[in-house]
Amino acid sequence: MQLVREALQQCCEPGAPTDALLAAAGIDPARWACNDARVSAAAYGRLWRLLARRLDDEFFGMNPRRLKCGSLAFLCRSSMAQETLEAALASALAFLSLMLDAMSARLVRQQGLAEIVLHEGDAPPRRAFTYFTYWMIVHGAACWLSGRRIPILAVDLRCPAPAFCDDYRVMFSENLRFDQPRTRMIVSADCLDLPVRRSEAELAHFLAQAPTNILVKYRDPQSLASRIRNDLRQLPAEQWPLAEALAQRLHMSTSTLRRRLAEEGQTYQGLKDGVRKELAIGWLAEPQLGFAEIAERLGFADVSSFYKAFRKWCGSNPGHYRSLILDATD
To answer: Buried (b) or exposed (e) across 120-135, using 16+ Cβ within 10 A?
Structure first.
């Protein structure tokens, strides 16, 4: 519900009645004041569309120049004419740079990593919701154009951290850093070589479901995989249980554990690798931690094993990633 209030902050006059608008989106107005209230992605998507039609603006009125209705469709149609995701993203960012004042974006490729950097000059930082809405559009379009989910390695933002970040971490990445010199999103560079093969029929289907289909990663926080991830995060890597011990702890057989995870498209080894990657990226942003210490924390036998695993996860060695994430120049 806090994100609902964020969406309405610049769309509606203070004190304006919102009950009818919320009801039309399928959101219970009686829960408006409850910070812990949840709304479905579908309801939030309907609210986005209602506000866009009311304002003729697909960016919640957060830019002096409106991002008029049809902008997302134009962005996708022009980008899908490109051969690779790199060219498609360059096209999409060029369009958004024209439409959104003082939010000029540039795609930079450096060895195994790529970053999309927002250049805002000396303008004051925008609120977190504005940046995340921008990333939602860019990342959602990129995933659709490439036909796959593109993992986000990290997101830096110039603004202070908002009071709530949990949903943002689910939507984008566990690795969010605030009060940074610039706003940027970092991904593996190999995704830029993905081919773009989308038809007009696929575009029509995508737009019919947007923006609900780009809001979240559809990760169920109550799923078995999510519970295991959360448990692993609470333990040092050397204390992570073997599959047999984990199954016993969860009061199920090892075969049942494997089957349940397979039904969610996961494996226990994949979950462990995912948590290791998440922790590694976070620790590499702390310059006082040496590579040997990080490798030990992650449960690797030596630094070379850590290097090999990190290159597999991110397409880059840890040193290059650290130099990029700690680079404060604009």
So the answer is: beeeebbbbbbbbbbb
Which of 228, 286, 271, 219 lies closest to 252 in space, CA to CA? 228
Buried b / exposed e along 268-305 (16+ C-beta atoms within 10 A)? beebbebbbbbbbbbbbeeeeeebeebbbbbebeebee
Residues 25 and 153: their CA atoms lie apart, in Å, by 33
* Cα–Cα distance for residue pair 308/4, rounded to 1 Å: 43
pLDDT tens for each residue of 169-228: 888 888 899 999 999 999 999 899 999 989 999 999 999 988 888 876 545 556 788 889
Strand partners, 304: none
Show the tokens assigned to 73: 């469709």
Upstream peptide bond of 211 is cis (omega within 30 degrees of 0): yes
Candidates 304, 292, 111, 282; CA nearest to 189 is 111
pLDDT value of position 15: 56
Tell me the chain's radius of gyration from C-alpha atoms: 21
For 132-260, where are the E strands, in sequence order?
152-156, 176-177, 183-188
What single DSSP character describes residue 328? -
Q: Which residues of 236-260 are buried (b: 16+ CB within 10 A; e: fewer)?
A: eeeebbeeeebbeebeeeeeebbeb
Q: What CA–CA distances, in Å, run from 34 to 3, 17, 204?
A: 12, 17, 36
Contact 120, 322 (CB under 8 A): no
Token reading at 13: 């006059």
Residues for the chain: how many in total? 330
Amino acid at 122: D
